[in-house]
Amino acid sequence: MKANRPRLTRNPLTVLAALSGFGLGALLFALHTSADTPGAEPVPPLIKAAEIAAVAQTRMPALRSSAALVMDAREGVALYARDVDRPRPIASLTKLMTAMVVLDADLPLAEAITITEVDRDRLRGTKSRLPFNTTFTRHDLLHAALAASENRAAAALARSYPGGTAAMIAAMNAKAAELGMTQTHFRDASGLDSGNISTARDLARIVQAASRYPLIVAFTTSEEFHISDLNSGRAVEFLNTNRLVRNESWRIGLSKTGYTHDAGNCLVMEVTIAERPVIVVLLNSWGKLSKYGDSTRIRDWLLAIERRLRTQNNGLIATQS
């Protein structure tokens, strides 16, 4: 297995934004305005999200997801929206909230947590690569839950939360209310419970909030990694459940997949397309690969609109000069 590469080599703007405490949009704006300084390379003027949205209404992509939202993360403008306010099961997208609540509690990341029978998935009978009686740090369980969508890791994180799983779920629902996610409710930490519901619009809020946590940014964009059992030293290897993070042509700043029979295939991302940071939410995609096909269709669609508008704007400038 190749070593997990730092995301700075893949997407420096995203990591720098996360580490500096500024949003990606703010950082891009700063880089854009710095072009006014003497000697700086010229930067094409940013096309406003409203211009993109106006053109998008006449050139909608044919997506295979039941609900979809594409939002300009810099300006907060929806560029594409389909059935964005209908609550539906969200599967493992839940784990973004799980991670935020764990990190908000400022629990020791080096603390050892042992996997027990209590962490078994009794709802859907899913498998796990974390055997009972193995022990991992909270840091590593967060990594496995976010990048590999490990359900047993999420259950252990909830069980070891102060006050136990019930307190964890209460904190997750309180966090959702704090973020203004009025159509969102959680019943477990993994997303296996179909009572974990949200909307595409609310999930965009989760992505925005989660992108402010450098550890979540780093973990959700890990390509491949391993965690080690503290008892035996045995390494357990994982791949990110989102294949797009292993594709050099994508500039992904945050990512999470999800699947249950009730939720269908789901994907949320913060991704930069044509220097535009966008939030993509895809829910209940048809088939295992459709969420990736829809992601590519969205990217091609936005690139085509950007090219069309730049051509129009350049033509207008030429006629006025």
**Structural class from helices and strands?**
alpha+beta
Query: What name does CATH use for the topology?
Result: Beta-lactamase
CATH architecture: 3-Layer(aba) Sandwich
* Global shape: elongated
For this entry, what is the oligomeric state of its chains? single chain
Strand content: 15-25%
Number of domain modules: 1
Give the beta-strand count. 11
Count of separate DSSP helical elements: 10
Kindly report the spatial arrangement of strands forming the biggest sheet: 2-1-11-10-9
The named CATH superfamily: DD-peptidase/beta-lactamase superfamily
Order of helices and strands: HHHEEEHEEHHHEHHEEEEEH
Word description of this protein:
There is one protein chain. The chain has a single domain, classed as DD-peptidase/beta-lactamase superfamily (Beta-lactamase, 3-Layer(aba) Sandwich), CATH 3.40.710.10. Helix content is 38%, strand content 20%. Helix 3 packs across helix 10, helix 4 packs across helix 7 and helix 4 packs parallel to helix 8. The chain is α+β, with helices and mostly antiparallel strands and 321 residues long. The N terminus is likely disordered.
